[in-house]
Amino acid sequence: MEFLKFEQQGPIGILSFNRPDKLNALSLDVLDELESFLRDAEKNTSLRVLILRGEGRAFVAGADIRTMSGFQAEEAVAFARKGQRVFGFLEELPQVVIAAVHGYALGGGMELAMACDIRVAERTAQFGQPEVHLGIIPGFAGTQRLPRLVGTGWARYLILTGRRITGEEAHRIGLVEVLAEEGKALETAMDVARDVLKGGPHAIPLAKRMVLRGVDMPFPVAQAFEAETFAYLFTTGEPQEGMRAFLEKRRPAWTEESS
Ligand code: CO8
After folding, report:
1. Number of domains in the chain
2. Is residue 164 in contact with ligand 1, taking CB distance under 6 Å?
3. Do 174 and 228 meet the contact criterion of CB atoms below 8 Å apart?
4. Does the global pTM surpass 0.85?
């Protein structure tokens, strides 16, 4: 891979955006590489948690402005759809995805972090949706994921002013779930990953899917879906082991990967 680096330590994978001279800006090539990586990752059954981070001074400073600067309308819609598809695929991965943010997470970079399940960020990280300053709008589903995460008030404030906020402020408004000290985003994300791995390997992806699907369903339908998912888990043997382990005062023996 040219713009991405991947290493796997047991069930935890670390994917680094590696185009530091351009603050990891998302060009068409970077998006292509990300898409093909994600297609492989989906099938990687030994991988249970994926951490996303950036090399250099940024997480990701946005979609590549040079790429977009020559667009006509057809290319613009294709680029927006491509980013939406790739980020949608990321969001739908069976693995838990954690963004470990330091430095800039702007525009498409903030949209990328929002497509992750959990956001860890350093206090000094810089989040923002500066698109309007370029005469565009967030186009990788930011106008949709941001209000779902922080409410329509903060979403309109951030998108309409293009102002940047620190990791600390992002944490206060609910855009970031876990705050890390400077230089500690990855380490803190690894701690979160280890907690995720304590959960049942069947329960975790199903719980993730339930939350994601459920928000777009009418409440009674989502509730029925939840009950069916709950019941399905009992066909896997996992709840029996989890609860037996609790009663026997020991750690559950899930699978080799989860220990
Ligand atoms: N795209 C392309 N290149 C970038 C980007 C970017 N988003 N961000 C930084 N770079 C490049 C710079 O051009 C520079 O390259 P070079 O050395 O060749 O001149 C290099 O990275 C380093 O950047 P700076 O010299 O600017 O570094 P500073 O420390 O001075 O500034 C900033 C850092 C404040 C992060 C600054 O680089 C900046 O403002 N970057 C742009 C941030 C931005 O506006 N991001 C949003 C982009 S729009 C977007 O993401 C839309 C997503 C949806 C698109 C779908 C529509 C079709």
Report:
1. 2
2. no
3. no
4. yes
